[in-house]
Structure formats: structure tokens, C-alpha cells
Amino acid sequence: MNFDYSDDEKAGFAAFERLCRDKIAPRAAELDRSDYDKAVAILRGSFRALAEFGYLGLGHSEEHGGSGKPLVEGVVYMEELGRACAATFLSTGASMGLCGGPIKAFGTPEQKTRWLPALISGQAVGCLGLTEPGCGTDLSAIKTRARRDGGGWVLDGSKTLITNAPICDAAVVLAKIGTADNDEETGMFIVERGTAGFSTGKPFAKMGYHGSPTGELFFEECRVPAEALLGDAGDGFAQAMGVLQHGRAGISAGAVGLAQACLDEAVKYARDRQAFGRPISKYQEVSHKLADMKMLIDTGRLMTRHAAWLADTENPDAGVMASCAKVFTTEAAVKCASWAVQIHGGYGYLSEYPVERLYRDAKLGEIGEGTNEIQRVLIARDCLARWGA
Ligand SMILES: Cc1cc2nc3c(=O)[nH]c(=O)nc-3n(C[C@H](O)[C@H](O)[C@H](O)COP(=O)(O)OP(=O)(O)OC[C@H]3O[C@@H](n4cnc5c(N)ncnc54)[C@H](O)[C@@H]3O)c2cc1C
Known about the structure:
Helices cover 53% and strands 14% of the residues. The chain contains eleven helices and ten strands. The protein has a four-stranded mixed beta sheet with strand order 1-4-5-8. Strands 2-3-7-6 form a four-stranded antiparallel beta sheet, with helices on one face. The longest helix is centred in the middle third of the chain and has 37 residues, at 236-272. The protein starts with 6 loop residues before the first helix and ends with a helix. Flavin-adenine dinucleotide binds at residues 94, 98, 127-131, 135-137, 161-163, 206, 209, 214, 364, 367-369, 371, 373-374, 377.
């Protein structure tokens, strides 16, 4: 394992850092506070800028407009975007990774040609619909059904808490396809906005990530052609687990970026703010928080890059390391955000300071894409399988 990136790679990272610093970060607070229409306009502008840079096609093949970069390189870009604006990171990740990822992995050449160039160029926005009103962690309990009808399928059901749902052009959706006698079979379908019987709900009001719209997907007698099915009928659940596992290194990178933003803000404030005639950074209680943040961030960064490298090399440990990185980095981000607010004292509680937004945004990492409780279940299961005999 060698994380000494080449000069070309470092030049790419530096160019992306400039884009994030000049174009994305300056609008993060505005994105957070704007009403829905304005926020969507800002977000779409960021999608375009990121597409132009090539960010939306990082892991996708050149044939479809991507750059085919390995994940170990991709996570460096993702961290930078997470540092600049968590909401933009989340929405682009849902479109390029959660929606584009399964199309890339399981799609037919026609499905890839139809959707990947559009997602990679930012002309289309995608989402992934797994969670339902009655279940999120336990996806075996989903109620959305697809029944065979003539040459195609008819979908009925709903999805909730879906990133990008209100603005999506395409949704990849998990549904049961079994009969009443055999309820276990599942499939993933690509459903296009405009399909009769497919609609989306209003965006939810939520604690953080205000700039990334979250909502519902509804399917009522929604007829889709046979070509809407991704891969083989029956593979849906395994496909969904694969997508989530692959995505965990990305979520970890975003969490490291968010934690780094907390440290950036905390250092600036601790240097400037005076108490008892000295900068507060001179007090050990403050400076030790900075040191602890630095250690959490660097450890999380290493775990993320390690998990990405394992995924790139198709190492069997990739899944468990992605879970470890996801838990560690998202909990580190919550701690760093809390300490950054604490270092700001009362001002940290005001919306005027970025740490207030970072504190609200940090929490989602512990919940999304497989809660940290269920990650610990998976990690412990792996330990027991290795060393339990
Ligand atoms: C802003 C936002 C964006 C989201 N984006 C998407 C998206 O794009 N696509 C999508 O499909 N979903 C999305 N989600 C949904 C998210 O993935 C789910 O909220 C998450 O998987 C948890 O599911 P749940 O909310 O149903 O909680 P539940 O599954 O009901 O869990 C509730 C609590 O019980 C715990 N728990 C449940 N089962 C176990 C167990 N076996 N062992 C130990 N603890 C357990 C959980 O860890 C949690 O603490 C999003 C959510 C939010 C808030």
C-alpha cells in the first residue's frame, strides 16, 4: 500500500482544491440558508462546475465521459468536496455513486449509454431508493413490489428519506419481485421521471444538509419496460448491499472533509479570540482539543484510503474495512464538530459561523448508508468469523 500520490495526481488534487475553495465553499452557507428554489439553483450550478472539472465522472469509464480513476484517488477529491460543502458532497454522491454506481456495475450497454453520460455531465440528477416508511436498516421488509406484466413490470409502493428525490431525473429503486408464496426475490429498477405512475413528494424540512433535497418516491401502477430491470431478476438485494459497501469509503471521505473543515475553523478562531489578555489557543484546554481533532482526522483519512485501496485491489477485507472507516470517521466528524462549536463559545451557536452548520450536518454520517449500529454488527460478525473458532 503506497499513498504517495504521483505528481500528476497531486496536481489534480491541487486544481480541485482551488475549485472547491473558489466556487463551492463560498456558497455553502448560502446554500444552507436559501429557500428551496434558490438552493436547487445553487446546487445545479455546483453540479455543472463539478461536472466540468470531471468530478462527477471520477470512477466512471472514459467511454461514458468519466476519467476511470481508482477509488484511492477518488476519496481525496471527495474529502475536498466534503470539506468545502457537505450538502453538495451528499447530493453529488447520491447522483454519481448511489444512482450511477449500480448502473455502471450492473447495467446493460444500453442502460449505461442512456444514463451515465447524462449523470456524469450533470445534465441529469440521480437518486437511489432503498429506504421505505416502514424500514431502512431491515431492507428485507420492503413493501414496494414489481410484478411482471406482459413484456415489462408494474411497480407499486413508496420510498422515503431519499437524497435528491425532489429533483431526480432517474431513480434506481429496490423492489420485491417475488410472488405471495415466495416473498424473497428482489430486483433493482431504473425509473425515469415522467413515467406514468411515478411521482416525487415535497422536500422534507430537516436538521442539516439543507442544500441537499430529501424526499419521497411514489409508484402507483407504474409501468416500466423489461429494460428497466438492472442485471438479473433476483439480484436486487445483493446489488443494493454492494452499492452501499462501495459507497462507504466515499461517505468516510466526506466525513473526514467535514471534520477537517471543523479543524480549519477552530484553528482560525482559537488564534484570533482573546480571553484574559491572550489568544484562547494558548490555553491547554483549547489547544488539546485541536490536537485531538488532528489525530482523529489523520487516522480517519488513513482508514479511508486503506478501505479504498482494498476496494480497488478487490481484497476480501474491503467490506469490513469500509465499515470500520465509516463508523470511525463519521463519529470523529461529530466529535470534531462539537469541539469546534465549543472552541467558538457562544458564537459557535450562531448561524453566522460555519461551525453551527457543520455541527448540524455532521450527525447524518452516523445514520445514513447503514447506521453505525449495523456497521458494528457487521464488523463484530467479521471478527467472530475470523477468530471465533
Ligand atoms: C438526510 C437523509 C438522506 C438519506 N438518503 C437516503 C437515500 O438517498 N437513499 C435511501 O435509500 N435512504 C436514504 N436515507 C435513509 C437512511 O439510509 C436510513 O434512515 C437509515 O438506513 C436508517 O434506517 P431507518 O431510518 O429506517 O432506521 P431504522 O432501521 O428504523 O433504525 C432505527 C434505529 O434502530 C437501530 N437498529 C435497527 N436495526 C438494528 C439491528 N439489527 N441492530 C442494532 N441496531 C439496529 C438503528 O441503528 C437505528 O439506531 C437518508 C436519510 C436521511 C436522514
